[in-house]
Amino acid sequence: MFDPATEFIRFKTSPHLPGVELYTARLVDVAFAPHVHESYSLGAIEHGVERFRYRGSEHIAPADTLVTLNADEIHTGQAEVAAGWTYQMLYIPPELMQELAGRTVWFREAAVHDPALARAFRHWFSQMWQAPDDLAFVSGFTPLVDAICSRYASDSAPQTAGRLAQRSAAMARVRDCIEAHLDGTLRIDTLAREAGLSLFHFVRVFSAAFGCTPQQYVQARRTERAKQLLGQRMPPSAAAAAAGMSDQSHLTRWFKRAYGITPAQYQQQIGTRPLA
User: Quick one: 193 and 254 in the same domain?
Assistant: First the structure.
């Protein structure tokens, strides 16, 4: 968990564009466990340097770097320098991104050094955080995301070996099985049978396809599902059960590892504390 004396984490959902989430943080000692966002993650590094693992590779993001992560991709995050890093992020649902861009969007690079666009991102992010109405919010949001997409997005994912493996029928069946049983018990031999692979070969193939182990993937999906439910005013204890966590303490531990704050703090920040 972050140290409030030197670090901060703030989430905010947009009342002007449903589904969009804004996030700003300064972090030093926090190291995010492998986690996932169902949305696209677009952001800019303001100060310091971040290191993160994404799609099987390590990335270094110094100040004035744009971070462009595709939806539903496992990644990590930690400081690369002693001073940590400060950054802002927009989380944009895939259906909204497609509506805005008029096409399916695939970001080619996870981190690109673009001082001018990074500064523009920080400016418009500040304006959107304080936007008094949808006119102000959408008027800033649209040209900013358009600029990032036009410069760094393709229409489709590259057909690398990893993407082909991830999209294979076997891995698709495994993903469907995981999603259908997140709230229950998931056994490794069940997933291996679903893929039609031996136990150990399944772990190798899955890890190559998704950039993390099956256990890390399942935990990331459960934590993200709980996050979605917390955003719908579900009490943390109920969200934990619905996401397959053993109890609220289990959820709290993993939520802090994935997002840096507790479920209660997250609900407090975005205004979805359960009604009495």
Answer: yes
